[in-house]
Specification:
The protein is 38% helix and 15% strand. By secondary structure, the protein is α/β, with parallel strands linked by helices. The protein has one domain: Alpha-Beta Barrel (TIM Barrel). The strands form two sheets. It has an eight-stranded parallel beta sheet. The two termini are 17 Å apart.
């Protein structure tokens, strides 16, 4: 029935000079070093080296074919979110990025599914850009797991999530903007410890902040990187909800009763970690993801699923494509055929 990768990123090769397009920076920009390589710059500082897989549809498709991936969800690279900027400027950035994403995906419309970004710091502007992006051809939206000190239970973000539910738009939540310190600036510790902690914290905010009591059951949410450390520490969270109701959240029910309200991807690399996700959330709440094309992602895509001998064939099929088909509202024909498919 095909394989769907719900967690990949892109960077447009034609990224413009935002100082000229939007206003004074510093902004993320591309220093193009060759036809195949570039450096993401923040002002004058180097952020991340990237290559043509970020912007070249043919390069992506070649890797997808090599790994047996039929469909990719193509999402923004979070450093381009511009959440710290004024909303009007961030809205311009989102429009530019979203339109360039559509250009990339138009090269292979049956295999590359675009997800938009929005100026999440301003609820009205975020809803306007979401509607524009969906009308233009985007299928879903990627949001950062927080906006400054505002987490997913902030009133404005809850309103945006309700808007997504009303529009039947799937939401992919990605950790970003991790705290730094001398202790975290070694060994990529911000990515190795901060990123899992950020995702864990935001799932807690979703539950203990009462968000899942307020938004419709129809809201489709997926958290990147296996939900961070959430599954491992669910027991501690559940114990705290029962033992310290005076201090732990406003949710109407204990945390374990909300596990069917969100999904996570499979970017956990070790079959033992994948087993914990399946045992904790259920195979119906896990979708294949890779974090392609970045170095900390999984290649070959889906290797952890292939090595997970504990999975039944039905569970394997659910994680590889069936759960994503529901998340994305794709027809079976879109998944089973690479040619002539129609997105529904």
């Amino acid at each position: 029935m095909g394989t769907i990768d719900v967690h990949t990123h892109m960077v447009p090769r034609g990224w413009p000079d935002l100082t000229a397009e939007v206003g004074p920076g510093p902004w993320p920009q591309l220093r193009v070093d060759s036809e195949r390589e570039a450096m993401i710059m923040i002002g004058s500082s180097e952020f991340r080296r990237i290559d043509e897989r970020c912007w070249d549809a043919d390069a992506r498709i070649a890797d997808m074919d090599a790994d047996g991936v039929d469909i990719q969800v193509v999402s923004p690279t979070p450093v381009f979110f511009a959440y710290a900027k004024p909303a009007a400027e961030a809205a311009k950035v989102a429009r530019i990025f979203n339109d360039l994403t559509l250009e990339l995906c138009a090269a292979q419309p049956d295999r590359l599914i675009p997800f938009a970004q929005v100026p999440l710091q301003d609820t009205d502007a975020a809803c306007v850009e979401l509607d524009r992006a969906i009308a233009s051809g985007h299928v879903g939206v990627e949001i950062g797991n927080h906006v400054g000190d505002r987490d997913l239970d902030h009133e404005g973000i809850v309103t945006f999530l309700q808007h997504c539910a009303d529009r039947a738009v799937p939401v992919f939540v990605h950790p970003w903007d991790m705290p730094d310190s001398p202790r975290l600036d070694r060994w990529m510790a911000r990515w190795l410890t901060g990123m899992p902690a950020e995702t864990h914290l935001s799932i807690i905010a979703l539950i203990l902040g009462g968000v899942l009591d307020r938004v419709p059951d129809s809201l489709r949410l997926c958290f990147a990187h296996g939900g961070g450390s959430f599954a491992f520490w669910l027991g501690r969270l559940e114990n705290a909800w029962h033992k310290r109701p005076d201090a732990v959240g406003v949710s109407e029910r204990p945390p374990t009763e909300y596990l069917d309200r969100f999904s996570v991807d499979s970017v956990v690399f070790d079959p033992a970690a994948l087993r914990l996700l399946v045992d904790t959330l259920g195979a119906g709440q896990v979708m294949l993801g890779s974090d392609y094309p970045y170095p900390l992602g999984e290649r070959p895509v889906g290797a952890v699923i292939d090595r997970a001998e504990f999975l039944t064939e039905a569970q394997r099929e659910a994680i590889r494509h069936e759960n994503a088909r529901r998340f994305l509202s794709l027809s079976p024909s879109h998944i089973s055929s690479r040619e002539g498919s129609v997105r529904t």
